[in-house]
Design a protein that fits this description.
- The protein folds into two domains: 30 residues; 93 residues, TATA-Binding Protein, CATH 3.30.310.
- 44% of the residues lie in helices and 31% in strands.
- The chain is built from three helices and six strands.
- The chain has a six-stranded antiparallel β-sheet with strand order 1-2-6-5-4-3.
- It is globular, with a radius of gyration of 18 Å.
């Protein structure tokens, strides 16, 4: 009897785990390639880090957001600012190939999916492709 209950619990935990993975893939597909991992939004762009970095700065400038920290190197970059409501916005950029950059965005401590989508839509316009 105990083995049967243990088997059922194991099956349920697998279903929940697999279901969570399907949700993650579905969420990424539904938002045009934006993937959410532990409150951070991620997307890859077909440009080098410097071009992606300049595009991030342009997106922030459009909304009159002034970064308080900016760092750029050939393979990594970061931009940090404070939004009007006091939440922190942090962009991290990392080369993931010769001309591909993975852009990660976190808004606030736990992330903000709607605002992340907003900023990635603006970034998509800055980096066509």
């Amino acid at each position: 009897m105990a083995k049967k209950i243990l088997g059922i619990l194991l099956m349920l935990s697998l279903v929940v785990s697999v279901g969570g993975c399907w949700f993650l893939v579905g969420a990424g597909a539904a938002t045009g390639g934006v993937l959410y991992v532990k409150g951070a939004a991620q997307k890859s762009y077909p440009v080098n880090v410097e071009k992606a970095y300049n595009a991030v700065l342009a997106v922030l400038a459009e909304d009159k957001i002034v970064p308080y920290k900016k760092e750029v190197a050939p393979t990594v970059a970061s931009v940090e600012a404070t939004l009007a409501d006091g939440k922190e916005i942090k962009w991290s950029l990392k080369a993931s190939g010769a001309d591909t950059t993975e852009v990660t965005l976190r808004i606030g401590t736990f992330g903000d999916k709607d605002r992340s989508n907003y900023f990635f839509q603006k970034l998509d316009k800055q980096i066509p492709g």
